[in-house]
Write a structure and sequence with these properties.
Elements: H1 6-17, E1 26-31, H2 42-56, E2 60-65, H3 89-98, E3 101-109, E4 112-113, H4 115-125, E5 143-150, H5 155-168, E6 178-182, H6 206-229, H7 239-243
Parallel strand pairs: 1-2, 1-3, 3-5, 5-6
Antiparallel strand pairs: 3-4
GO molecular function, one term: oxidoreductase activity
Protein name: Flavodoxin family protein
Organism: Sphingomicrobium sediminis
């Protein structure tokens, strides 16, 4: 049973009628809920809708629930090489790196993203010394988005921090790359909870429906554009041009002459 509204379904139907083909794309939806994996997650409920839009666009969708895993503290790709007995990140990272689209979903706690969301961002940063086959940072040519849920203000604040971090490590952020839902301040129903009349909390929010749809389609469009173009041109953004002492647009240090 779909959780999308009639308007969301209509938009997806119209997109399919345009013969848009995103079948070459892979997406990974990452849930940074703090709940035990055996418990339902409200963040997962909104990610489900994003996943449904992706799947209707023929995107291959992978799901990661971070509370299923142990992410050892630290900013190296494998922290077992730095004193920890266990780090599940190496296996997770293969799935993240393989995807063209990465969407991080997080609840809001004390006005901020969850601790697991922050740990995920730190793990992305652990790959900042690695490059793709063009010599660019590893996440160049991939796109990122953010889903936020909670019972307190802060969707835009959390989205700002998440999306800044993702672009800093190389992800491309398209327009309107965040969406979310927040209820009344304080304890109370969360997104997807069943009401007395059988409807679901938040499912009637046009703001959430619209922004979720915009985000999902913009991520697919941007990822497809990058895929078709072969990624971002490797001009002026190649790590080795700096590592060997040369700077784009400037002479090598050893050849500089004093005025």
């Amino acid at each position: 049973m779909t959780m999308m509204s009639e308007q969301m379904i209509k938009v997806c139907d119209e997109a399919e009628a345009e013969d848009l083909d995103f079948s070459e794309l892979k997406a990974v939806l990452v849930n940074a809920s703090l709940k035990h994996p055996s418990q339902d997650s409200h963040t997962d409920t909104l990610l489900d809708i994003v996943g449904e839009i992706f799947e209707r666009g023929k995107v291959e969708v992978d799901r990661v629930r971070l509370s299923d895993h142990l992410l050892a503290p630290g900013v190296y790709p494998d922290m077992t090489e730095h004193g920890w007995d266990r780090d599940d990140w190496p296996k997770i990272s293969e799935r993240i790196i393989d995807a063209d689209i990465c969407v991080l979903g997080t609840p809001i706690w004390l006005g901020e993203k969850s601790s697991l969301a922050q740990a995920f961002i730190e793990k992305l940063y652990a790959h900042s010394g690695q490059t793709n086959d063009k010599g660019q940072y590893l996440f160049y040519g991939k796109v990122g988005g953010c889903v936020v849920t909670g019972n307190e203000d802060g969707i835009k604040h959390v989205g700002m921090g998440v999306l800044y971090s993702m672009q800093h490590v190389g992800y491309t952020i398209p327009p309107q790359a965040d969406c979310g839902w927040i209820g009344e301040a304080g304890p109370g129903p969360s997104y997807g909870d069943e009401k007395d009349d059988g409807s679901r909390v938040g499912f009637d929010s046009v703001f959430t429906q619209r922004n979720t749809t915009f985000m999902a389609f913009n991520l697919m469009h941007m990822a497809q554009m990058l895929k078709t173009a072969g990624g971002i041109p490797a001009v002026g953004n190649v790590r080795s041009q700096w590592d060997d002492g040369s700077k784009p647009g400037f002479p090598n240090p050893e050849y500089r002459m004093d005025d």
